[in-house]
Give the backbone structure.
Amino acid sequence: MTVVRWVVTALVVVGTIAWTLWDFHLGLAGALVGLLLELTAVQAGLALGAVLFGLRITHVIIGLGSEVKSWTKTHQRIVLRNIPVLATIGITGLKPGVRRRTVRTGAFSMVFCAAIAAATWLATGSAFGKGMALAATACFLLQLAPIERPGNTSLGWFVFKLPKLSGRRLGELEARPRVLAGMDAYHRGDLDEAERIYDELVRDHPDLITVVGLKVVTTCARQKYLDALQTVIGLNGRQDLNARELAFIMATTAGIAVLAVEAGQFPAEVGLETARNMLNNAYEAGYPKHRANGTLAIMALLEGDTAKARQLGGWAAESSENALGRADDLATIARAWMADGNNAKAREFVAEAHELAGWSPRVAATRARLEIS
């Protein structure tokens, strides 16, 4: 699909130049605007569809570059960046009938994007408008291809592939509201409730990856990292997983391995090498590298590269999708400052981390160390 995207991009550039001739610079500027417009329309359509059809919006990231302002709740995070172009949202099933609701959300976004692309053709009286119309239409047509990868899912997948989903993957989808209830309990620190929900789910759905995932996160929250590592490594041998699922499992394995090393439960040499291998395998399977920044920050901290740990931790915190994730990244930054002897700076980060997820054992331990010092 990457090759297809490059071919389509080349065709749009050539087509724009051929159509606009001496005003090709205006046409190419319009093409860039058309691309950004249609990419934003995809996310806007999904957001509107989620509201209309009862899905939860987990995060909204508006713009590119560094963070200007953010609003973080237990189950939702909204971020405004300093270059206000493009946007990214996350959606998940909140109520029963997840497949039906998700298909309708995708279809709504597809119609919305088609309308935006069609509207750009009203501006083809200018070179700028011609480029904009070509790029917006090409972007929309690419969205029709049914693609599901660790980094993104196309509208075509929601509309054309999702209705045909069956077996375990359909079970994962339809069980999502119950799994989400368990994850909500975990994110607010009610581990007993999260484990109770897991016990109910595992009786009905012992083979679901998301159910196993609930067990893994609560086990980590109990700081039983080796138990969590054993559970997630056991998933790697399953034959019913697709590349996207394997990518997330391998990235999770890497994350737990470095936490186990940090907690003194796993030899550093073995744990860090395991994490590197798992991340490399995850990247090969399509896992977005920026999503591993939190794990890489802890690895850098364990290896004594505190400046790199702060940089990666900062990137991870800015792109975090929930309060607990951001709190964990802030704790990493605080520990890096502590390692450099700057406890005053560390306290600034721990204060926000505590406000977001003070129950987190990693955040609480970092804060306790600072209070002692």
Remarks:
- DSSP finds 17 helices and two strands in the chain.
